[in-house]
Hints:
Blueprint: H1 18-21, E1 34-43, H2 47-58, E2 63-66, E3 82-83, H3 91-98, H4 100-109, H5 112-123, E4 131-138, H6 141-156, E5 162-166, H7 167-170, E6 181-190, H8 193-206, E7 210-212, E8 217-221, E9 228-231, E10 234-243, H9 254-257, E11 260-270, H10 275-281, E12 287-290, E13 296-300, E14 306-314, H11 322-333, E15 342-353, E16 359-363, E17 367-371, H12 378-392, H13 397-404, H14 413-434
Parallel strand pairs: 1-2, 1-10, 2-7, 4-12, 10-17
Antiparallel strand pairs: 3-6, 4-6, 5-6, 8-9, 9-10, 11-14, 11-15, 12-13, 13-14, 16-17
The chain binds flavin-adenine dinucleotide.
Amino acid sequence: xxxxxxxxxxxxxxxxxxxxxxxxxxxxxxxxxxxxxxxxxxxxxxxxxxxxxxxxxxxxxxxxxxxxxxxxxxxxxxxxxxxxxxxxxxxxxxxxxxxxxxxxxxxxxxxxxxxxxxxxxxxxxxxxxxxxxxxxxxxxxxxxxxxxxxxxxxxxxxxxxxxxxxxxxxxxxxxxxxxxxxxxxxxxxxxxxxxxxxxxxxxxxxxxxxxxxxxxxxxxxxxxxxxxxxxxxxxxxxxxxxxxxxxxxxxxxxxxxxxxxxxxxxxxxxxxxxxxxxxxxxxxxxxxxxxxxxxxxxxxxxxxxxxxxxxxxxxxxxxxxxxxxxxxxxxxxxxxxxxxxxxxxxxxxxxxxxxxxxxxxxxxxxxxxxxxxxxxxxxxxxxxxxxxxxxxxxxxxxxxxxxxxxxxxxxxxxxxxxxxxxxxxxxxxxxxxxxx
Length: 436
Ligand SMILES: Cc1cc2nc3c(=O)[nH]c(=O)nc-3n(C[C@H](O)[C@H](O)[C@H](O)COP(=O)(O)OP(=O)(O)OC[C@H]3O[C@@H](n4cnc5c(N)ncnc54)[C@H](O)[C@@H]3O)c2cc1C
């Protein structure tokens, strides 16, 4: 394979996570070497790139995905596994900021990502422990009022698969005194995120797609009629380029750098708890996240571990002691787990946009990108991957509307983005703590 030392992923192996330890078998793909040519080149084998690539390969296009590390090495192979309908920016924020028509348009699309995931799992028989349902948990009465308003607004757009839960009913989903109530979305869910990515990659290859792993892109020539992508050991020229490097892209494509900022969030996996203890904490199938700005998100794995995530570090660095950081939050929800053994703790980066709206767009005529799902990207990356594939295949109807939603650069670019966002995070964290 070669060129391992220069990969931004170190030796390019997956990070030491529960997901990597329980990943389904996957081949080691060859790196890109020498001069190559393809119709459509995609940078990044996360959900965005795989989603777009699989759709295009299914339609018969010649597609090559160039991945700097391994399939699912980025956020897609390390996340909380929560399949949440909606974007990070809420429909009410979208309505206030961009108007009723945009909110209505977004509402007609926000359930598609979850549907794409379920369809793919069924069609390609992807073994990734899919479970149904997600719960938004309210800590305060004010949070509960927010959830009531959310349910009404979504129902007004015709989305009515959500159910409000009072304090006692919530306990049939999550048995904790920490919460005032919640809302269950029966069409949400959760799964083993790395195995989903590996399954999608296999499906892409089954449809004739090519993936090159361990091939960090070091530059992109956007000026020529056929974009040229240079990697450490090779290059590939293409008719159309799709950039899906998200938080890990760094400065490779300067025009995208100030649009998003990497933010790290952390996850731990406890030892297996056994069926009895696990079900005493989470009696139902659903995963749970609370509604704070800096939130906890958690679920049970197929082998009854608690997979518990939370926190964020702006700029994308890792906290010194991930386990200690997360254990404090975990114990607030489940005090009985104060002494639980933690088998894995890891960190990963998502891409935050200033408005918390995902971004999709085009540089010139034949270079497309999507990124910036702002921490709620499992469904959004599948939706935006599909919209990218539609655009490249000639149907710009959804692409044009999403691309037309304005974006705001981080004030001061990447340099000031971190202090600015730390301030923002401190402010929202304070509001969370004060319950306002
Ligand atoms: C710890 C964590 C927990 C999360 N939990 C949830 C959750 O529970 N629910 C939810 O909805 N969202 C969650 N998210 C967000 C979600 O995982 C992401 O939004 C989503 O996976 C983004 O997919 P992507 O394909 O755009 O990016 P990524 O999965 O990050 O993929 C980008 C890929 O591009 C590659 N790449 C980057 N630069 C280059 C380059 N120069 N050359 C070649 N390849 C390159 C990377 O190696 C990577 O594989 C979480 C994120 C993290 C980090």
